[in-house]
UniProtKB/TrEMBL annotation:
Residues 5-234 form the ABC transporter domain. GO terms for molecular function: ATP binding; ATP hydrolysis activity. Signal peptide: none annotated. This is ABC transporter ATP-binding protein. InterPro entries: AAA+_ATPase, ABC_transporter-like_ATP-bd, ABC_transporter-like_CS, ABC_transporter_ATP-binding, P-loop_NTPase. Keywords: ATP-binding, Nucleotide-binding, Transport. SMART domains: AAA (SM00382). It comes from Rhizobium straminoryzae. Belongs to the ABC transporter superfamily.
Length: 308
């Protein structure tokens, strides 16, 4: 799959000496949803701002659709839609006029049919004549997405798009974003709701302290870094863990009431049957068996924590 955004050796150092980005390399594929995860101050917004032409890099190059974001700013900006974190809208303007005006700002001809479709897709059609000050915070965020889509961009950046949005509105917004992906629009999002990234993204990028730690297919990342756990609730507590189980990587909880076997990362996957057979051979009775697989949030916390 071809890249729509290419980032090469990108750095950003501010006048006070703070280095926000440290040699970032990134290829974003046409038509994918890429989730960019990282703690506050990691460099997510700085990276997005440079790609969108809102901030100048200290060194390196960014191409959007094959065009340089610095020397060919007008061409790249027309390819990009940006939904910022802040609710920056004219509170006394109507929804319809706000979205239509945004299309004109990018040099596109009036297209009422397109604006109507965008507003309907984002469940804003009934609010088209309302002034923005009359809308809830969640509805205002939808208006920001509508503005970003008004000029038909090929790349859409969503910087914390669902912050402060209730669960119902959030799910509605993601349904609309998923439809956009089906039309070939590339979506890059930053979010603190890691379950959203786990549900929606094709690939996951993790950034910390200005460094891009990894970019992986979501499934490959879960398979490679995820952990699984087998837990047995014992009928009677054990005083000592049998040596045969310890050799298989099984541990005993401090109260002696549970046996725990962790596996994953390609290690121990084939031992579950052996563990259960050994438990039976040792004459250990258990009342319940449960398994758990680590989430994307677990993996994210371990990655960021390991490099803290």
């Amino acid at each position: 799959m071809s890249s729509i955004v290419s980032v090469h050796s990108l750095t950003k150092t501010y006048a006070n000496g703070f280095q926000a980005l440290k040699g970032v390399d990134l290829e974003i594929r046409q038509g994918e949803i890429l989730a960019l995860l990282g703690p506050n101050g990691a460099g997510k917004t700085t990276l997005i701002s440079i790609i969108c032409g809102l901030s100048m890099p200290s060194s390196g190059q960014v191409l959007v659709g094959g065009h340089d974001v610095v020397s060919q700013f007008r061409k790249t900006r027309r390819l990009i839609g940006l939904v910022p974190q802040e609710l920056t809208t004219d509170q006394f303007e109507t929804v319809w006029n706000t979205v239509s005006f945004s299309r004109g700002l990018h040099g596109e001809k009036s297209n009422p049919a397109l604006i109507e479709r965008i507003l309907k897709d984002l469940s804003l059609w009934e609010k088209r004549d309302n002034k923005l000050r009359e809308l809830s915070g969640g509805m205002k965020r939808r208006v920001l997405i509508a503005k970003a889509l008004a000029h038909e961009p090929r790349v859409l950046f969503l910087d914390e798009p669902t912050a402060g949005v209730d669960v119902e509105l959030r799910r509605g917004m993601w349904t609309a974003i998923d439809r956009l992906r089906e039309t070939g629009v590339t979506v890059i999002l930053t979010t603190h709701y890691i379950e959203e990234a786990e549900e929606m993204a094709d690939r996951i990028g993790v950034i910390r302290a200005g460094e891009l730690l990894l970019v992986e297919e979501k499934k490959a990342l879960m398979d490679k870094l995820g952990r699984k756990q087998l837990r047995l609730e014992l009928k009677a507590p054990l005083a000592v863990l049998p040596q045969s189980l310890g050799a298989l990587g099984v541990s005993l909880t401090p109260d002696g009431r549970q046996l725990v076997h962790e596996y994953g990362n390609g290690a121990g996957d084939g031992r579950i049957g052996q563990v259960l057979a050994t438990v039976e051979a040792e004459g250990i009775a258990f009342t319940d068996l449960s398994t758990r697989q680590s989430s994307l949030e677990d993996i994210f916390v371990s990655l960021v924590g390991a490099r803290a």
